[in-house]
Structures are given as structure tokens and as C-alpha cells.
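**Reference record**
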Amino acid sequence: MTDGSPFTPSDDPLSPNHNLEITMEEGSENSEQLLENEGNDLENECDHVLENEGNELDNDCEQVFEIEGNDHENITDFDTTIVDGENGMSQGKNYLAPVVGMEFESYDDAYNYYNCYAKELGFAIRVKSSWTKRNSREKRGAVLCCNCEGFKTIKEANSRRKETRTGCLAMIRLRLVESNRWRVDEVKLEHNHSFDPERAQNSKSHKKMDAGSKRKVEPALDVEVRTIKLYRTPTIDAMSYGNSNSSEKENSNHMDQSKHLNLKKGDAEVIYSFFCRVQLTNPNFFYLMDLSDDGHLRNVFWIDSRSRAAYGYFSDVVSLDTVCLANKYEIPLLAFVGVNHHGQPILLGCGLVADETPETYIWLFRAWLTCMSGRPPQTIITDQCKALQSAIAEVFPRAHHRLCLSLVMQRILAKLGDLLESEPFQTALNRTVYESIKIDEFELAWEDMIQRFGIKSNECLRTLYEDRERWAPVYSKDTFFAGLSAFQQGESMNSFFNGYVHEQTSLKEFFDMYEFILQKGYQKEAVDDLESRDTTPTLKTRSYYELQLSGVYTKEIYEKFQGEVGMMSSCIGITQLHAVGPIVTYIVKEREGGDVNTRDVRNFEVMFDKAGAEVRCICSCFNFKGYVCRHAMCVLNYNGLEEIPPQYILSRWRKDFKRLYMPDLGSNNVDIANPVQWFDHLYRRALQVVEEGMTSQDHYMVAWQAFKESLNKVRLVAADKHV
């Protein structure tokens, strides 16, 4: 499983290139010290730049964001508009934090962006180093760092100037790509010092800030508008998405004409009206529209406040619901779906797309990732699609990309119409997919199946088999799914909007019922929360493990876990296979199907680390569903552990874990001279009190009393000034 850190491109070893010249920028202080101490680092940086430049042409469908100024008078000059509503206020910061992958039209744009971001937080920047091509003197890369980077030299330490350096490591590394864009290749956000907005205001970098690049502090409209520039390359994969005989220009023109949302009369007004209305009532609502050069709407993305907050708790696994696209519904809807603490699907964002190309999916994924603060999911589950696979590899390179197993099984049966009613075939298929414990078992069973039923030449099966590592459970034992993918026979995954959106559903009908669908989900979650908290589960066995987790898991998850506890009775023997130090491998024998009358027995290998109380079963129930299996509990019990180790009790399933679905509170750094930031900061903090005050009647009374007392104190300040 991956962590939640922003992704970075892989670094392959390189040989130095001697055509690159390293220079120090005029604005860089202590240049002598930097040249002496940073020489090796700069050489490595240059090598890294040259390596990546060699691979630039591989990224045919690359799209990246450029954060631009907030000039509302020129808003039509940009391709894409983001509106982030907080009753007219920003997200706490006017500039998003830099992330790897951001791109800019020029070095000056990149510098001005980081400078504005730094000024907003309260620190200054300088150019730590830059490098150019020796002959052309063209700048090829640079490192911008916090002004507190490094330390004074011995010579400078004897001066009377106050020490301001702290060895801060905050920085961004930029490099030139395709001769006309600057990409952020490395980011370090952490500072080792407090921010000083007053000192930063007087710094050299902020004093020389170009007036045209400054973000206007006061929004000119009722909502803050941010623009994001999208770079689109006209080259398309000829094998899958375009005509290999077409010229680059022809492809570009064809794309410009065809990549528009197919909107009926009044649909654009429906979308716009919905977004405007939701912004008035939904704090932190976010939407983004992708416009073509001629002003036509290509793609749309939106996400509400609660979904953004929920992702903070349930960001481990995300499923991409493309049912409407796959079945050619009237609305080209795509939904990001997660799973909450009750095992229920939750919405984490929606999009309307003009087509199903890598270019469009990259745009959508980058939009989604931007509003999730650059934190990708650990696992992303999709339907089988080359365009999706390409886009996910580009935007989420560290995530585990897996295919939805229930959709794969449906596709297999749909492509084998002659065998659809064949019970022997379905039995063989289910045994192969669901019951194979080891990889060699699966591959031998698959080969036997296609030979037995004469389907070896079936193109669909051949393609699926080539991609088997993305969908067959036996290959995904190290991937966490939180129960979001169906790995047991008979399970299936439904569309999030199943039962509401049909083939002929119009955009107006969809947006009319959109909020109703979400509210119904919120109400079910609230009812389940109440039931889980106030209901004492009935114990079905005398197991310590059942008693231990009866007060921990939510009702839905506990009932599933309780089923595993009950199945411990089908495990009829434990044998030690071998031991290496504290790690012991056991064989747990289980009656097949849990039937006490059957003589068929299956063996499950379970590894147990006595030193760390870690247990792992070959069935991988913990990764697939998020709780330990019966085989693991038998081994724990065999070794005398009366409780399940805490690392196997995930907080995402706990009923006593406090979840507050409120927007990101942003930074506490407020410009005391900026009334707009006063409002933004106070509004967010007040919203936090409102959210927590809604949890119970006692919380409500305390919050209401606190509001009254605070208001009285604020009025006293105003009264004192008039005395």
C-alpha cells in the first residue's frame, strides 16, 4: 500500500552531461557558499533534468495545471475556470501549495507563483541555483528556496546583521520541458521556522514582485475564481484513439471540433444554475469547467464540501463509476466513489466528459487531485479501458490500479453467449477466479478451462488474461480494497446512482434529484451511526475476539466480522509447517465451504510473527475486506493471544471514531491588515463550532452559549472605542 504523500517521478541513474552550465542567479545570496557546498547537488540536478528531457515526447496526452492570476476582467483568456465557493470566500489560501507536476508557460510565471504563495504564507524566497545550456545561455532549470535556507558563512557571521537563516529545506525544483513550459519536479513544503509576514513583506523577492502577477486580494465577484491553464498535445495514440495516417494538424483540428459535451437546449443553463445555487448553501463547494478555444464546454468536474471532508477519512480506496459512459447513457456521467465506515458507497466527486480519451481522463484526474490537496488514493478501481489505464499511470503513478472484478466477470459471460447457460462452465470459471489460492493454481486452472470448453482462441478472454494481474484476486493479495471490490462469488458492485439514472435520464432530471440522492445517503449514514452507537450486539459464540470487537466496529462491519468468527468452527486443525526465528508458518485445515458434513478439506498458510504479534493469511481477507479472517484468528488463539492486535483494528471501521464532515480549515496564518482574510478565517472557525455543536443536544447548548458570549465580548470592544 502506498502512503498519502504527493507522487514524484522515478529517478533513473544518469551519466553527467558536460554541455550544461551551472550559474548562480543574481538574486541568490551567499553565492560563494552555495557554489562550494551545493556543487554536487547541482550536478545531480542537471543530470536529472537532462534525463527527463529525453523522455518528454513519451507523454503524448499530458495535461497539467498552471495556477494563474485572479484577474476577472480577463477571465475569458483562459481555457479552464475553477470556482471554489465558501459563501464568496477562498479556501483559506488563495494559492494552492505547489505539487509535483505543476507546469507554467514561462520561468517568470513559475517564479511569480511561488513568490505569491510564499508571500501569502509569510515567508520570502530566493533563487538557490539555476543552470543553462553552455552555448545558448538558455535557462534550463532552477531551484527556488525559502529565504531562511542555509546558514551564514564564517565571514558573514562576524557581521552585525541579524541572523535570519535557519537551514530551512522548503523549496521547489523547476525544469524546462518541450522548450516552452516549466515543470515542478520536486517539492519540499515543511519549514523549520515560524512565518513572519511583516518581515516577508519587506523582503527583496516581494518588493520586486511584478504588479501584473500579484493576485488581487479582494474578489471582484461574489465567489473567488481561479484559473487553471491546461496544456493539450495534439498527438493521439494511433493504435487506440486516432488515425495513424492523419497529420498532427489534422488531428488537432478534428479534436477541437469533436471534443465538446453533447448538450441539448437549456442544458448549459441547468449546469450553471445548479452550481450557483449549491454555492450559496454548500461551503467549500468546488467546480471546474474545461472550455475549448472557441468557448465550447468540453468537460465539467464538481465536488461538494462533505465529499472533500470525507476523503480525509476514506482516501485509501476509490472506485471510478463509469457505468453511464460504458452503456452510452444520455448523460456522460462519471463518479468517484469511496466506502465509509459502514461499508456504504460515498460520493467523492462527479464529472461530465466529452469523450473517453487519455487526454480527457488526465484532465479530470488532475482536477480531482487538485481539490484533494494533491493526495492520491492508495487503490483505484475502474472498468477495463486503455484510456483510463494510461491516464491513471500518468496522474496516479503510485496507486494500485485494479479492475472491478464483477464487471470483468460480466464481460466474460457476455462474450461467451454459447456458454452463458452452461452450468459446468460457470462452475469452472468461478472456481478458477474465486477459489484459486496461489498464482500457479489460477494459471493451471485457467488453461484447463479454456482447453476443456474450446475457447482458447476467444479474443476477449485472451485480452483479459494478459491483464489478469489487475483483476484476478490471487494477484492482488498485497492491495487494500476495504471491501470495495467483490472478491467472493455472488458479490457485485452497483453504480452509485443505480436506480436513479437510466439510459434516457436528462441532465435536468439528474441535477433535480442529485441533492436528494446525496441527502438520502447522509440520512442512512446518520441512522446507522445512531444504531451502531446505541445498540449492543448479540454475541453468537464464546470467542474473546467477538466480545472484543463488539464495542468497536460499526454494526454492518461487526456483522461481517462476526461471520468470520462463526466460521472458526470449520477450521479443524493447525499444523506448524516451518519456523525462521520468531516467524512461524502454520497450515490451517478447513472444511471446504464451511460445511461440517463435507470431507473436502482445504489448507491455508498463515504466517505469524511472535515478536511483533503480526499475522498474515494467504486468503488475504484483511486486505480485501479490512478485518482479520478465521484462519488468522485460529493461529492467534493457538498462540495464546486473547485479543486481536491493535494494528488489525482499522479506525475506518470504528463506531467510536469522531468524524466531522467539514471543510479544510486551512492555515492559521492571517494577514492582520487584510479584512478579507479576517472574514475567511473567522467563518471557517465558526463553521467548525457549528459542525461540532450539531453532534448532540448538549453540544448544541454549549456552542449556542459560546456564540452569545463571544458576540457580547465583540460588541464591548466596539463600545469601548466610542467612549
The CA atoms of residues 118 and 124 lie 6 Å apart. Confidence is low (pLDDT under 50) at residues 1-93, 210-257.
